[in-house]
Design a protein that fits this description.
Length: about 250
């Protein structure tokens, strides 16, 4: 086979990882006088790497995660009361197989969403199916879908290995409809022993009121707390720090 025919065959066989590196590997083999098995194993590895990153990319897109946050870029010295050790414990992802649900509560701008997203991103890279959305967006997406789409969405949300419900009650109390969808998600995931991370700047004792005060609201809180890990965030808002830095920069110009 000529090179062009090999490339065509690789395309037909859907071996895009090998196709992308073939020329380089041939050159490497010639110049380095590598034996067949060495070059062949590099090509197989290239294919595996390509597949790994494309499934990871697919899982990332499916998750709804809007940014790739990490623990590295987090300044742990800024708010010393942020629960550092329990957060690192969550980053091991053991809580997912244990079916535990971290609840991150506390003051605005202290890094709850940042760290929850970083954990979600780590879970995606480790092969877990993750859904990570702002609470209102996630619930509204289900509420406004037609029956078929709604069923499909609910199945995805209930079956995911990890669901992150970010910024719960950020703007206001949930409407009855959204509250019921949330309760259904939590209830079903609880029954299946699936993990759910919730972040919110509203204290837990306010939740029943924000959920609409129904008996179901206290049932939801009960389920969450039963297999929950409560993490409390105290401190100054990093947003204000960033805003102050921007103002200072503008002033000095
Ligand atoms: N200690 C920190 N180091 C670096 N960046 C931080 C830190 N804390 C927060 N941030 C950044 O500040 C911004 C606000 O943080 P984040 O959204 O995580 O806060 P939050 O606790 O979820 O607040 P809210 O309750 O308002 O939702 C984000 O861009 C985040 O990356
Ligand atoms: Mg937040």
């Amino acid at each position: 086979m000529k090179m062009i025919e090999i490339e065509r065959a690789l395309k037909q066989l859907r071996l895009s990882g090998i196709r992308a590196t073939l020329e380089t590997r041939v050159l490497e083999s010639k110049t380095g006088k590598l034996d067949f098995m060495e070059t062949f194993s590099s090509l197989i590895q290239d294919e595996l790497d390509r597949r790994q990153s494309s499934t990871e990319e697919r899982r990332f897109k499916l998750s709804g995660l809007d940014e790739r946050k990490s623990f590295d870029e987090f300044d742990w010295g800024f708010n010393p009361k942020v629960p550092k050790k329990p957060c690192f414990e969550l980053l091991t992802l053991k809580f997912i197989s244990e079916g535990l649900s971290p609840i991150m509560i506390g003051s605005p701008g202290t890094g709850k969403s940042h760290l929850a997203k970083a954990i979600a991103y780590k879970a995606i890279r480790d092969g877990f199916v993750v859904i990570c959305n702002e609470a209102e967006d996630l619930l509204a997406k289900v509420a406004t879908a037609n029956d078929v789409v709604r069923k499909k969405l609910m199945k995805q949300i209930i079956e995911a290995d990890l669901v992150v419900i970010d910024d719960l009650f950020l703007h206001r109390k949930l409407s009855d409809e959204l509250s019921q969808i949330l309760q259904s998600i939590i209830h079903k995931r609880y029954k299946r022993r699936q993990s759910t991370i919730i972040t919110s700047n509203r204290i837990i004792s306010d939740w029943e009121k924000l959920l609409g005060d129904s008996p179901m609201a206290s049932a939801l809180k009960d389920r969450l707390m039963h297999r929950g890990i409560l993490l409390e965030f105290e401190g100054r808002s990093y947003r204000l720090k960033e805003a102050a830095a921007r103002l200072a920069k503008a002033d000095s110009k």
